[in-house]
Amino acid sequence: DGELCLSRSLVNSSDKVIRKAGSSVFQHSVEGWKINSSLVLEIRKNILRFLDAERDVSVVKSSFKPGDVIHYVLDRRRTLNISHDLHSLLPEVSPMKNRRFKTCAVVGNSGILLESGCGKEIDSHNFVIRCNLAPVVEFAADVGTKSDFITMNPSVVQRAFGGFRNESDREKFVHRLSMLNDSVLWIPAFMVKGGEKHVEWVNALIIKNKLKVRTAYPSLRLIHAVRGYWLTNKVPIKRPSTGLLMYTLATRFCDEIHLYGFWPFPKDLNGKAVKYHYYDDLKYRYFSNASPHRMPLEFKTLNVLHNRGALKLTTGKCI
Ligand code: CTP
Known about the structure:
By secondary structure, the chain is α/β, with parallel strands linked by helices.
């Protein structure tokens, strides 16, 4: 409960908190940071009690047959039909089976990345995870381009690709996916009702254009399991953000996890404005109740983990 109060006060007055930050929750020095391998192993083991990312990262073909009806994970009263297209794109086996990496980058979408010069460093990691099909080419110097695993909330179709209303929106989307080659495209299709037609359009475009991208659709238990892990560790998150989900999954595959683009605050430590996204004009939603996330609380948690050597958080410039 102490944590809950803290998160509320952060949400209400993050400006003030940042100004006062000094030695507080936001400070993390990159110099002298060292990985704490035994802590990394302990975290991996503890998370495995709640979920196995190798399995829960995606349902597989044998989980369903076309025509099956499933309940949405966060909206149990509503249902979804497993279509032929969707079924045909389910992987035969987990796309992360037996994949292990020495270092991974999880790239969040905060404007803190702008002018960071972190592109080269991000691309130097063995495995790079990105969120919500964020554009990279125009921002390569700051964010890099390597994308081995990329998430896509169904709402992205509306937000970034004009709801596929005209041919050029669809072309832009197909072009973006073709750049991914055979990377994993992770689509949370079973979370809440509302995006089913978008998911179907995406599936149809992938099939029609014979795109090589490896589609993955998170298991029905993933989000509850991730929430359970963090709750047990006294981090009361209503609904983990994509970025936190990706860190949680990555603990299974990566010995060293480096986070970039995590900064859910409208100003940096020097009081300079920071965009919510590095690539568009979306505003900070979590100051209202409109957002299901508790990103400031998540950030504080990641910061603690940075200071203990469990992960490395970069919010400054890369040299
Ligand atoms: N993020 C952050 N600070 C920001 C913006 C994003 O720390 N200012 C992190 C969050 O962990 C977020 C991830 O980067 O989940 C990806 O950003 P975004 O695509 O904006 O995710 P949202 O759509 O806001 O959240 P979600 O997809 O989780 O609903």
